[in-house]
Task: structure prediction
Amino acid sequence: MGNAELTKPNQSWAPVRANSVANQIVMQVREALFNGKFQPGDLLGSEKDLAAQFDVSRITVRDALRTLETMGIIEIRVGAGGGARIAEGNLDYFSDALAVQFKLAGVTEREILDLQVAIEGTGAELAALNRSRENLEELSELLGEAENVMDSSADFTDAGQQFHLAIIEASGNRALIAQFRALRYVVWPQNAQRATREIAENAQKIHHQLYAYIEAQDSEAARKLMIDHLVSIRAVAFSGTAADDATGVICC
Amino acid sequence: MGNAELTKPNQSWAPVRANSVANQIVMQVREALFNGKFQPGDLLGSEKDLAAQFDVSRITVRDALRTLETMGIIEIRVGAGGGARIAEGNLDYFSDALAVQFKLAGVTEREILDLQVAIEGTGAELAALNRSRENLEELSELLGEAENVMDSSADFTDAGQQFHLAIIEASGNRALIAQFRALRYVVWPQNAQRATREIAENAQKIHHQLYAYIEAQDSEAARKLMIDHLVSIRAVAFSGTAADDATGVICC
DNA sequence: TTTGTTTTAATTGTTATATCATTATACAAA
DNA sequence: TTTGTATAATGATATAACAATTAAAACAAA
Result:
């Protein structure tokens, strides 16, 4: 008693979790990965092998493998020559985890959209700096495709989203790409709304201007325009109920 | 034969995956969550209950529960009254998944730092707009604490990181908070380096100025200063090997 | 009543064994 | 070369059992 450490009022305790054998296996593999002892594609072994190596039952190994698989650390194949292997990076899985966590934490649409503005603004900025000839060709092609579907709201929305994705990809930053794809997944229901011809034309005009800035490598202008673009989309989306303003729909 | 669909050269088939029973259970629970049929804390049941409800073995239910647990969708408690419950949002888990995916995808430090600039820049901007009286008090307190540990590089680094976190929290945006915490986890090894007294004093000066902008609700100035701050930290971090410049260490 | 202790029952953790479904490989047949 | 077939490896699933953990209930003491 009288332990000063224990009586500190603001002491916050780390949750104590009895580490199961399965979790210990998970941690061992995870640590090995971060210590550079594994490369994507490396074979860990079959359930039987691993059960023998760790001296535990197959079920316990299965528990660990299921966790590692869900974390995206390993991939499991059945059949001869199958077993558990270190996975190639799979960012789709992360997107799903992000969506789940936002859902559980009750993160609002507005909060997510502010994050989207941050991601896409920086994406446009870096795209202007780093875009390759191939990036410009793809962006140009997507602009042309969008031009052909201006009257089909669903198709235009789709083309617009592809344009935004292509910009992020032109940034050459895989961290941004992952974030963008994750967010697109999360905000999908909102963006599935229809765009009128007028809105489509306005968006297309902005997209053309974005392309011009990126081609000219004017990163600051690209960033500012992208943010304005997203903020105006958001303003429309939050301007009231759909009934208030039938034309107040977003496109991309 | 002669099926036009099948002979189309560019036809790409979606891979057909036999969905395991365990995965079907995972998807059912996941869909129910997104359809609003579950709230955090809701009891799913024990392994035995669920095995009976889904008419599968306990092993299969365990596989599904292990996956759902790793996704952060459920929490599992052992003992009487235990079982699987819908989890409260746990953003730490997401941080780990992000770190794993970046590791596997081979995302570079530079890419991650560009993302960090985007997140923290927007965080500072929103903090200036949304900061509460409590936020200002905490930021002020952290500045004072940092003042007392200027000569201890490790302590000052720690205090600086807490200051940055407090700014993000002042933004009131849980999506940004989640991203920041995730990134901090990922870039931890870099930031663990030591800061000299000179660097600490410079950082402290900038932090004081950041506080002033946030208090004055000057969002644009706060954003710009934060970005400059991070870019200069990054410039030092990438200026060469540690041997080249012993003072080129980062602090926060 | 309040507090501390013991008991009990529920539940996950782990092991063992067995069968089924899936897959890669080797090899034979056309 | 192409196609089919047998074989072995491997995960997926099921059943049964026991150990370890934990919450709740019952009980005792102050």
Summary: Residues 18, 46-48, 58, 62, 76-83 of chain A lie near DNA strand D (CB under 10 Å from a C1'). Residues 213 and 221 of chain A are 6 Å apart (CA to CA). Chain A has two domains: 21-86, 92-237.
